[in-house]
Amino acid sequence: MLESAELYFNADHGYLEGLVRGFKAGLLTQQDYINLVQCETLEDLKIHLQTTDYGNFLANQPNPLTASIIDTEMRKKLCREFEYFRNHSLEPLSTFLTYMKCSYMIDNVILLMNGALQKKSVKEILVKCHPLGRFTEMEAVNIAETPSDLFHAILVETPLAPFFQDCMSENTLDELNIEILRNKLYKSYIEAFYKFCKNHGDVTAEIMCPILEFEADRRAFIITLNSFGTELSKEDRETLYPTCGKLYPEGLRLLAQAEDFEQMKSVADHYGVYKPLFEAIGDGSGGKTLEDVFYEREVQMNVLAFNRQFHYGVFYAYTKLKEQEMRNVVWIAECISQRHRTKINSYIPIL
Amino acid sequence: MGSLFRSETMCLAQLFLQSGTAYECLSALGEKGLVQFRDLNQNVSSFQRKFVGEVKRCEELERILAYLVQEINRANIPLPEGETSPLAPPLKQVLEMQEQLQKLEVELREVTKNKEKLRKNLLELIEYTHMLRVTKTFVKRNVEFEPTYEEFPPLESDSLLDCSCMQRLGAKLGFVSGLINQGKVEAFEKMLWRVCKGYTIVTYAELDEPLEDPETGQVIKWYVFLISFWGEQIGHKVKKICDCYHCHVYPYPNTAEERREIQEGLNTRIQDLYTVLHKTEDYLRQVLCKAAESVYSRVIQVKKMKAIYHMLNMCSFDVTNKCLIAEVWCPQAELHELRRALEEGSRESGATIPSFMNTIPTKETPPTLIRTNKFTEGFQNIVDAYGVGSYREVNPALFTIITFPFLFAVMFGDLGHGFVMFLFALLLVLNEDHPRLSQSQEIIRMFFNGRYILLLMGLFSVYTGLIYNDCFSKSVNLFGSGWNVSAMYSSSHSAAEQKKMVLWNDSVVRHNRVLQLDPSVPGVFRGPYPLGIDPIWNLATNRLTFLNSFKMKMSVILGIIHMTFGVILGIFNHLHFRKKFNIYLVSVPELLFMLCMFGYLIFMIVYKWLVYSAETSRVAPSILIEFINMFLFPASETSGLYTGQEHVQRLLLVITALSVPVLFLGKPLFLWWLHNGRSCFGVSRSGYTLVRKDSEEEVSLLGRQDIEEGNNQMEDGRREVTCEEFNFGEILMTQVIHSIEYCLGCISNTASYLRLWALSLAHAQLSDVLWAMLMRVGLRVDTIYGVFLLLPVMALFAVLTIFILLIMEGLSAFLHAIRLHWVEFQNKFYIGAGTKFVPFSFRLLSSKFTDNVA
């Protein structure tokens, strides 16, 4: 990028950046969480959320309230905000936002294909799809029988098309293949996104690259963890790892050879960033899970992204933080509705 | 009613509301708007409060009402807005009302649902007929364009030559037809092509009339399409794609006969549906009309109810849980009103034990209440925008009523412009009851709210315009000028006089471009003009020099008077808050500092005006030099203004110099001495010495505080008593900063008042330029053309006068007047650290539907 990028940043994206920073200030605070945890019923939760930036977003919902209604409404709210950003953005921010959308689109496509495999109706699955990743062609996904079919017939005109280059095969789509397809798509997506941020340069690269590196490594760990005890071969497993993280290349090769959790942990021990994370995992009951630890680290990175100005990372960070917040609220809501109060405090605090 | 000089005395009252009557009592209080509630449950989160269930119920009612209003608006039924506002509903009626509303909602939802269903049905049928009509032409056309079919490899082209052949192939040939959203056509066709690899034919045509989308209710353009395909497999795919693009698919009739039958069937069904729909709509309208009658009062009632419960949430329960305790701020003068309201509330609910109240002493600062009317409101707003006054301090708004328009007018002084402004404000004032004005847009509303300020500003501008003798930059000769030109001619004087003075003769008049009138020639200056500036100055070339000198001196004089007045108001504050020492140690040195320097300057100006006449003006000393010399003690003696001037000036300077250390150190040292004195004598000796040492007020104040503290401990222990710690360093710092600010401020603020001169000069010059550029040009042209030219020139002149001179210049003068009040005047005495008294009053609730729907 030219040196003058920062000069024009405010003219092009200043409004949206201001907006997103304002939205970030509206995230639930520690005090809010303390109050939420004290709620007895979901009605109380609703009343408390009314005093926050959520406002009366549940006002027109008929009783009784459920956690899933809260979830959908919160998602809708986030989606409204995101669409507003996207509709008012200029290049290259709009490309950046499209990239952000892609991950949700991949999830939706996979969700729909799984649904088709289990012979569920499209309408039923559509409700579960994330509104951020919604696109018109999505509903026709179940026509396709092989990945290349899927590409040629349906997704060729969507932003997802470029990520298909690695996964064109004629295999029929069974459950394992769908999972492989998802991971391959995600791999090429995250690599493309990484490349985009890197090429953009400037503060955006400085902020976004570490976040995406972490995201890639997290996926590598999770894939490894999930592949234990499945028929996935080690070579196949290695092809699924995104190659833009800090683990690339030695770490990934070692991970590919890992056979249980302990071996995975010893791989992580070579990296200063991941060692403390793995050490923070509690054993057995009560402690934190690997997922929680990763979420906490992600939140931390996203919060730090707001410390710098003139970059697009704030949009990514805000969306991720909001997602985390939604997960927290839904968690608390679930705990309240199931009267399972012992675990109510294990949400991920947003600093 | 309370005075505008100080805010009203407040007292903290405790209301003991019997739990059965609390609602009625608060309803009565809300109607009157007497008291401000204090939140006693600040650390309780909103959902844990006592009346949260009731608030929730109110919200539910609001939701239903919002739905009703939305439906009524959609049906275009006028909503009557009642004039009177109904009381909050009695508790017994609330349940009834809730039931009624819920029943109404259920009914309404059902009817609307039915209606929507019918509409959707109807829409589908209409779409079907449209589709049939359009696709009929497709088949015909397909026959005409044979080559389309030749592209299909598995079929011989000749077998498809006519319609009958197609029927023979019917087993293999499938049709899907329907309607698709205009925007999706292209993507739809592309995907069809990609998925079915060309084994389909798509024909489509735009529908000539737009139809409503049954899902979103928008009216959009549609396309009718017909897909013909071969084979079951592809058929499935095509159907899925149609689903994906939300097409409305309808069965496609294979024969012409079938088509006709369907068409006929459809037509009759559409007719039936129309009648049913019509009846449903009629019924819905009836229901809505009935609901619309009461909906306004219901909305207000629910709002009031919700407000009452919010206030009840601020109260705390007593130990026995039998009554609610509320703490309220109430103006002292209205305590009996408060009592009456409580009685009324108790009576209404028919409670056996009445609710009662008692006042409790407190050390907390009460909120500030200054009652305003429509005239004083605008001025109070100017002051409040700077800061709401501290409790019981002198309210500058009272003086602002006169000084603000006056200072504005000094800058805006023009008879004509002022009169136009006055007329505009008068128009607003006379029509203030007009409903359109009070509900108008933001900018007009701003003018409307400041109409009385504008009125006074206009009036004062007329006055200063008369003083400046400016009317649209021209002077008005009302009384005849005091100068006589003919007296300057040599012929009108005797020969002896002619020698002494420079007089005019014919050659002088003929050859000089500029002539000078000499006031010392007898008969030339016949005494001052009765009001303001002599109109002859309008012709003079040295007019600006003359006016500048006059306006500059005037603005300094006005400024110093204004600031001195501010310091004097400070004395009233000290007297009221019983800090007499502040008068001697702060206000008096401040006054001396100001008056000995700048008061003396004013004296010199006025003295020079009075003492020197036209004859002696040549020997008059310059005030500027004299004033500078006052501080520099020059070695060379100049002839001063008066004898003994030097000594007077020395004396004044000494006083000024002495007042500075008093200002800096007086108050901190005194407080320190007071503090130490109290601590050494208070323990060892009796109170008698105390009385002798401290001023009487101080002791009486102390005594009162002691009593209050005792009361506090008895009545409620949770109220914190903040005992101020004596910190000498802090007091010294504050006083030093204040003093430095004041001393420097005296100089810079005086200079700041020169803006009066600058802006009035700018205004006069600008209007002069406008006249010279436009009107003079228009007036110079000879009569015949001039008439045609003058009309547009006049129009342009009027427009520019209004926009530049009235609005733009007026705004700038307004801003500067505000600044002079906020910065130069109010910082002499006004603290403005109070909080506004916001009573719990139903009148503050908005009575609009719009808020409610949004």
UniProtKB/TrEMBL annotation, chain A:
<dbReference type="InterPro" id="IPR035067">
    <property type="entry name" value="V-type_ATPase_csu/dsu"/>
</dbReference>
<keyword id="KW-0406">Ion transport</keyword>
<keyword id="KW-0375">Hydrogen ion transport</keyword>
<dbReference type="InterPro" id="IPR036079">
    <property type="entry name" value="ATPase_csu/dsu_sf"/>
</dbReference>
<dbReference type="GO" id="GO:0005769">
    <property type="term" value="C:early endosome"/>
</dbReference>
<comment type="similarity">
    <text>Belongs to the V-ATPase V0D/AC39 subunit family.</text>
</comment>
<protein>
    <recommendedName>
        <fullName>V-type proton ATPase subunit</fullName>
    </recommendedName>
</protein>
<comment type="function">
    <text>Subunit of the V0 complex of vacuolar(H+)-ATPase (V-ATPase), a multisubunit enzyme composed of a peripheral complex (V1) that hydrolyzes ATP and a membrane integral complex (V0) that translocates protons. V-ATPase is responsible for acidifying and maintaining the pH of intracellular compartments and in some cell types, is targeted to the plasma membrane, where it is responsible for acidifying the extracellular environment. May play a role in coupling of proton transport and ATP hydrolysis. Regulator of osteoclast fusion and bone formation.</text>
</comment>
<dbReference type="GO" id="GO:0016324">
    <property type="term" value="C:apical plasma membrane"/>
</dbReference>
<dbReference type="GO" id="GO:0046961">
    <property type="term" value="F:proton-transporting ATPase activity, rotational mechanism"/>
</dbReference>
<dbReference type="InterPro" id="IPR044911">
    <property type="entry name" value="V-type_ATPase_csu/dsu_dom_3"/>
</dbReference>
<keyword id="KW-0813">Transport</keyword>
<dbReference type="InterPro" id="IPR002843">
    <property type="entry name" value="ATPase_V0-cplx_csu/dsu"/>
</dbReference>
<dbReference type="GO" id="GO:0033179">
    <property type="term" value="C:proton-transporting V-type ATPase, V0 domain"/>
</dbReference>
<dbReference type="InterPro" id="IPR016727">
    <property type="entry name" value="ATPase_V0-cplx_dsu"/>
</dbReference>
<dbReference type="GO" id="GO:0016471">
    <property type="term" value="C:vacuolar proton-transporting V-type ATPase complex"/>
</dbReference>
<comment type="subunit">
    <text>V-ATPase is a heteromultimeric enzyme made up of two complexes: the ATP-hydrolytic V1 complex and the proton translocation V0 complex. The V1 complex consists of three catalytic AB heterodimers that form a heterohexamer, three peripheral stalks each consisting of EG heterodimers, one central rotor including subunits D and F, and the regulatory subunits C and H. The proton translocation complex V0 consists of the proton transport subunit a, a ring of proteolipid subunits c9c'', rotary subunit d, subunits e and f, and the accessory subunits ATP6AP1/Ac45 and ATP6AP2/PRR.</text>
</comment>
<dbReference type="Pfam" id="PF01992">
    <property type="entry name" value="vATP-synt_AC39"/>
</dbReference>
TrEMBL record, chain B:
<feature type="transmembrane region" description="Helical">
    <location>
        <begin position="783"/>
        <end position="807"/>
    </location>
</feature>
<dbReference type="GO" id="GO:0005886">
    <property type="term" value="C:plasma membrane"/>
</dbReference>
<comment type="function">
    <text>Essential component of the vacuolar proton pump (V-ATPase), a multimeric enzyme that catalyzes the translocation of protons across the membranes. Required for assembly and activity of the V-ATPase.</text>
</comment>
<keyword id="KW-0472">Membrane</keyword>
<keyword id="KW-0375">Hydrogen ion transport</keyword>
<feature type="transmembrane region" description="Helical">
    <location>
        <begin position="584"/>
        <end position="607"/>
    </location>
</feature>
<feature type="transmembrane region" description="Helical">
    <location>
        <begin position="451"/>
        <end position="468"/>
    </location>
</feature>
<protein>
    <recommendedName>
        <fullName>V-type proton ATPase subunit a</fullName>
    </recommendedName>
</protein>
<feature type="transmembrane region" description="Helical">
    <location>
        <begin position="651"/>
        <end position="674"/>
    </location>
</feature>
<feature type="coiled-coil region">
    <location>
        <begin position="94"/>
        <end position="128"/>
    </location>
</feature>
<dbReference type="GO" id="GO:0006879">
    <property type="term" value="P:intracellular iron ion homeostasis"/>
</dbReference>
<dbReference type="GO" id="GO:0007035">
    <property type="term" value="P:vacuolar acidification"/>
</dbReference>
<keyword id="KW-0812">Transmembrane</keyword>
<keyword id="KW-1133">Transmembrane helix</keyword>
<dbReference type="GO" id="GO:0001669">
    <property type="term" value="C:acrosomal vesicle"/>
</dbReference>
<dbReference type="InterPro" id="IPR002490">
    <property type="entry name" value="V-ATPase_116kDa_su"/>
</dbReference>
<comment type="similarity">
    <text>Belongs to the V-ATPase 116 kDa subunit family.</text>
</comment>
<feature type="transmembrane region" description="Helical">
    <location>
        <begin position="554"/>
        <end position="572"/>
    </location>
</feature>
<feature type="transmembrane region" description="Helical">
    <location>
        <begin position="406"/>
        <end position="430"/>
    </location>
</feature>
<dbReference type="Pfam" id="PF01496">
    <property type="entry name" value="V_ATPase_I"/>
</dbReference>
<dbReference type="InterPro" id="IPR026028">
    <property type="entry name" value="V-type_ATPase_116kDa_su_euka"/>
</dbReference>
<dbReference type="GO" id="GO:0051117">
    <property type="term" value="F:ATPase binding"/>
</dbReference>
